[in-house]
């Protein structure tokens, strides 16, 4: 298979991948671009999207840009027929530049400035999320264009990020908002929720879906306009250090719960992490080393303030290892490059003896990593190198299964 490797200047070199091992490919990329790198493989974006779509065949998938807002991801998913979930005017701008039709987008931030609403409407995105009376009132001015999803909250203490703490209302408030919207002439399209990111128990979705179903029924009983959309949010899990249930099995109970809704109700989801987490491999190199209290400290050119920011912001635990693993392993510490003492990636990791310049590989580094990286201490963020980004015409060729 021949692939094109794009660099920042979009000049590309065709390289016959079948001749290269992964180690050789990484060495070649580091030679061309230097370290640190984030290697984004669009074939894995395609694989993840298709897997989730196969697991939820009747659900429209809106990729949530937040975990990895990269144009190559947007374009790859657009070619796959995906829809998109936006939360800010910056995300609106990104999908607009990538040629995403506005009908394929929804805006799901529950709290918006007037400017944010107008930016989205001007683009043509007209489905918004609301979870309070204060927010609903903002749409009196846009009642002819906008349609609203009411976001419900279902607390989930087990999730990596319990997104129902900060956003969402209870079913009784949802009914009150729907009544008020009716009085104001604002169209309510349906309900949404987010069970929490990296949710490993599908019953959280099942419970939320059942509660939403009860609200749908109540709306009918009250004689209010019938709801036509249910948005089951994101949260679908991936395997980091520990295995999670394969997505097909994970979605079985979700599909069964969704069967309670009539076919006229459109079901959508907002996956983020599941689509992009496995698609990025990080490459950092050893800048220097020291022995401290019986352990070898390796100082890398990427760390907590860079691509590994998810350790702080996302409770992330990424499979990290040396690229070469011969020789005996010894207790080691992997530290980031900044002068801050919290900048440590792994305190207790068994590594072979490394030389300065040796490479450290991080897996599952696509979601909530580079998106939250900083330039603290003037250490530049890792460059993102994109693999397997086919143009629409190239894409007509059969893909090689990963
Ligand atoms: C962050 C977010 C998502 C994506 O969640 P994942 O857990 O990454 O799938 C989806 N919808 C909303 C509203 C979000 O804030």
UniProtKB/TrEMBL annotation:
Principal EC category: lyase
GO molecular function: arginine decarboxylase activity; ornithine decarboxylase activity
Biological process per Gene Ontology, one example term: putrescine biosynthetic process from arginine, via ornithine
Chain positions with N6-(pyridoxal phosphate)lysine modification: 66
Enzyme Commission number, as recorded: 4.1.1.17, 4.1.1.19
Any GO CC annotation of this UniProt entry: cytoplasm
Name of this protein: Diaminopimelate decarboxylase
Organism: Gynuella sunshinyii YC6258
